[in-house]
Design a protein that fits this description.
- With about 625 residues, the chain is α+β, with helices and mostly antiparallel strands.
- The protein has 3 domains: about 230 residues, Immunoglobulin-like, CATH 2.60.40.3140; about 160 residues, C8orf32 fold (Roll); about 210 residues, Jelly Rolls.
- It contains 10 helices and 39 strands.
- The strands form 10 sheets. The chain has an 8-stranded mixed sheet, with no helix packed on it. An 8-stranded mixed sheet has the order 28-29-27-26-33-37-36-35, covered by helices on one side. The protein has a 5-stranded antiparallel sheet with strand order 23-22-21-24-25.
- About 40% of the residues are buried.
């Protein structure tokens, strides 16, 4: 599974929504070119299922590349592996008048390994056909056929696969042997598909035409929600002799059980070591934490994807002896170790990735790219990311949090939801003390406590960067006009809600502005909000916020002697559907204390709420720019 599934998604995606071609000189319906970098004139995709274990995809496309921003669509990538082969791949390029420039030669087609940097062995390869040209507009045609012995994945058809792409006409057909049932799900289709029959096959066909370029709105839904999509999936399927059924999540989980069966055996010596390691643990959770710590110290993530090995884990004994494995192998190994000390756990298939959309829970199919471990306990469920040597036990965060996972239980698959993180979980709590001199420069001591998703970047920095590299990274992160870092340090607490405390000592140049006898201070030193999306006359799509967070800043300025307040901003307090904001400034003698609190929620809101969202952010921007004005008393 893991990265192999990502590549197979790419395969299906490129088979059905690859950058496409048109013929030079062809007329285009009015309204399609405006806002487009490329126009698909015609696209035909036919997926023919021969049996539960084999099928063929043929693909033909004709597209005009209009400008430099569309040129990447004149390069075609066709992935394949041990379970598939490219039968043929052809291409032709035409100039703006429709005159043929040349055809693609076989020797021009690159055939390279698609193995990535974290893989030890993979059978993934990709053929690359490049017909990019420098004189716009020009037209390209591509045609190929791919045969596959892996029927775990049926195509997902995206006739309009990106912004600034127009589609004149596209069609998608699935040919199923009579007696085999196709499952499919349509979204945003202008009209439903039609079913006909030949002597041997049931034929399903979908068509779209005259699709204008899509432009996403700020804070809008994912692109896939805005364009036509047809998802298809098998009922019965077979991969390298392993037969399965995908009609329900339960039956799909039973197929995964087949692949995992008998692969959790550990050497007796390892079992004895694990029992000794956990013998004096006071609770079951403490046992789990010790096993997880042992895993992180002993193993590393390496992808080995060959044939069915893309979904079937290596034996636990293999990982135990070699010290490496991919996500499913390391998960299986951890499950075996927990079993050795009497703790039950379950594999959990999941779609991992920051801001990845959740799976379609009402459409059982192979939508996953990763495996983690679910450990039920008396108090709660503990989730373990078995590929990481640095993540805290129980923390899922932006990579696998707040989405559905498929538990692989002895009874089959069962959908469950992983942990969600509220605003208070994703906190940035900052305390700053600044000592100003009469020139407006200063020395600042900054302590910031990051939790949840807000600590993730610094977690990576702590474990993957040397001190000097950390220092360079901090220079990019600290949002102060002119400064030098004198010292920096990190402390970390690895709990289910991990915490990173960052300590900085900064030399600030022109932290305050001096004009004659006045000193102007912007009390919000490091957390100014700067982005406000454009206000549209009519918002078309919902407003979507994917992360909740809480930022609290307490900033204390110590002024040089002789200054008194001339202007103090009023307290700010804004509350909206999307969050809350407060800011206060108090002056006591030579000390100015600024307290700012900004909390934003996550969720989906109606388009009608967008003006309120823009107004809320505008108010925050204005408040964050407010200044306190001091005047120097005559000596």
């Amino acid at each position: 599974m893991c990265r192999r599934n990502i590549l197979l998604w790419l395969l299906a995606f490129l088979l059905l929504a690859t950058p496409q071609a048109g013929a030079g000189g062809l007329s285009v319906p009015e309204g399609l070119i405006e806002g487009a970098n490329a126009v698909i004139h015609s696209e035909q995709t036919v997926f023919t299922v021969n049996s539960p274990g084999s099928g063929v995809t043929t693909y033909k496309v004709r597209m005009t590349i209009l400008n430099e921003n569309g040129k990447q669509r004149a390069k075609l990538y066709v992935p394949y592996d041990k379970l598939s082969k490219v039968d043929y791949l052809e291409g032709t390029i035409y100039d703006r008048s429709g005159k043929k420039i040349r055809s693609l030669k076989k020797k021009e087609i690159e055939d390279i390994s698609a193995m990535n940097s974290f893989s030890l062995f993979e059978d993934n390869r990709v053929k690359i056909a490049d017909l990019t040209y420098t004189m716009y507009p020009y037209t390209v045609e591509f045609e190929y056929q791919l045969s596959s012995n892996n029927m775990l994945f049926y195509p997902v058809w995206h006739p309009q696969d990106g912004e600034e792409l127009a589609v004149e006409q596209a069609s998608f057909e699935v040919h199923m042997p009579q007696g085999m049932r196709l499952r499919y799900q349509e979204a945003n289709m202008p009209k439903p598909g039609k079913k006909t029959a030949s002597a041997t096959h049931d034929i399903y066909r979908w068509e779209v035409s005259n699709l204008q370029p899509i432009e996403r709105e700020p804070y809008g839904p994912g692109f896939e929600e805005l364009v036509p999509v047809v998802r298809t999936a098998p009922t019965d399927f077979e991969v390298e002799g392993y037969k399965g059924n995908m009609e329900s999540w339960k039956s799909y989980g039973l197929w995964i059980n087949q692949l995992n069966q008998g692969r959790d055996q550990l050497p007796e010596a390892t079992k004895q070591k694990l029992r000794a390691l956990t013998a004096d643990a006071q609770t079951e959770e403490e046992k789990i934490l010790r096993i997880y710590d042992y895993l992180q110290g002993k193993t590393r993530y390496v992808s080995i994807q060959l044939g069915i090995g893309g979904w079937q884990p290596f034996e636990a004994s293999f990982v135990d002896s070699k010290g490496y494995g991919d996500c499913k192998a390391l998960t299986n190994y951890t499950q075996a170790m927990l079993k050795a000390v009497g703790i039950e756990s379950y594999h959990a298939l999941i779609r991992a990735g920051e801001n990845e959309p959740d799976i379609k829970t009402d459409f059982p199919s192979s939508q996953f790219n990763h495996v983690i471990l679910c450990v039920p306990t008396e108090k709660d469920t503990l989730w373990l990311e078995c590929t990481s040597q640095i993540e805290a036990a129980g923390y899922l965060g932006s990579f696998t949090g707040n989405r559905h996972a498929l538990l692989i239980t002895p009874e089959g698959g069962k959908l469950v939801k992983t942990n969600a993180y509220a605003a208070a979980d994703n906190a940035q709590l900052r305390s700053i003390h600044v000592k100003l001199d009469e020139k407006g420069s200063g020395l600042a001591s900054v302590t910031t406590r990051y939790t949840g998703m807000q600590q993730e970047a610094r977690n990576q920095v702590i474990h993957n960067m040397k001190p000097e590299e950390q220092r360079k990274w901090l220079y990019q992160q600290v949002k102060v006009p002119s400064f030098e870092i004198s010292k920096h340090a990190f402390e970390q607490r690895q709990t289910q809600l991990p915490v990173v405390t960052e300590s900085l000592e900064l030399r600030l140049r022109q932290c305050a502005t001096i004009s004659g006898k006045r000193m102007f201070v912007t009390p919000n030193l490091m957390s100014q909000w700067t982005f406000v999306p454009d206000q549209k006359e009519k918002r078309l799509t919902d407003v979507v916020r994917t992360m909740a967070f809480l930022d609290v800043d307490t900033v204390t300025f110590e002024l040089p002697a002789g200054y008194t307040v001339e202007y103090l901003p009023q307290d700010a307090r804004y509350k909206s559907t999307f969050g809350e904001f407060t800011a206060t400034v108090k002056v006591e003698g030579r000390q100015v204390t600024y307290i700012r609190r900004m909390q934003m929620g996550k969720g989906r809101y109606k388009a009608a709420a967008y003006p309120e969202f823009v107004e809320f952010l505008n108010n925050i921007v204005k408040s964050d720019k407010q200044q306190v004005v001091f005047v120097k008393n005559p000596s």
